[in-house]
Write a structure and sequence with these properties.
single chain; mainly alpha; 6 helices; transmembrane; oxidoreductase; membrane
């Protein structure tokens, strides 16, 4: 079984990258869509942009986010990537997840309180998204040597609790 999983690593990486592209594209697009929510629009126009934003978030961006995180988690264990740069990447991925949830909150607020919700400037939302994305991209591509950063013991040493499955060796 482990051999099959190792053989599928390129496929997992491809799906991970594909889902990541959709997720990141959606996180950039959604704030721009939210900015078009104008309560002075006619009821039909407002309903159309609100539904488009909601459906993009629910049926496209969120499944891509979940796929990215789940397959990324599988790849952590299949590839055994436990390097200092990787922990930084996880921190910035967590910020992307937080931004994703924040955008979802804004979408719900706009839908439930037509005209009464102050929509954040798209530039602010985009910066909250683009900075973690750029940091993840830098860390993944550059894989900088962060060995000079002192990590806590719980990140450097095993906790003597074996995983319920065998970790493949490189």
């Amino acid at each position: 079984m482990i051999e099959l999983l190792i053989a599928l690593i390129p496929l997992f990486k491809a799906v991970h990258i594909f889902a990541l592209i959709i997720w990141c594209g959606g996180l950039v697009t959604l704030p721009l869509m939210i900015a078009h929510h104008d309560p002075t629009d006619s009821g039909e126009d407002y309903r159309r942009i609100r539904q488009a934003t909601h459906q993009a978030y629910i049926f496209c961006v969120t499944p891509a986010a979940v796929t990215t995180v789940v397959i990324g988690t599988w790849l952590i264990f299949l590839r055994g990537v436990f390097e200092p740069w990787f922990y930084g990447k996880l921190l910035f991925v967590a910020l992307m997840v937080f931004a994703h949830a924040w955008i979802g909150h804004i979408i719900v607020e706009v839908a439930e309180t037509k005209g009464r919700t102050r929509i954040p400037e798209p530039l602010i939302t985009l910066m909250a998204i683009l900075l973690p994305m750029a940091a993840v991209l830098f860390l993944v591509l550059a894989k900088p040597d962060l060995s000079g950063i002192e990590l806590p013991e719980w990140l450097r040493e095993t906790r003597d609790h074996p995983l319920p499955f065998e970790i493949p060796k490189r």
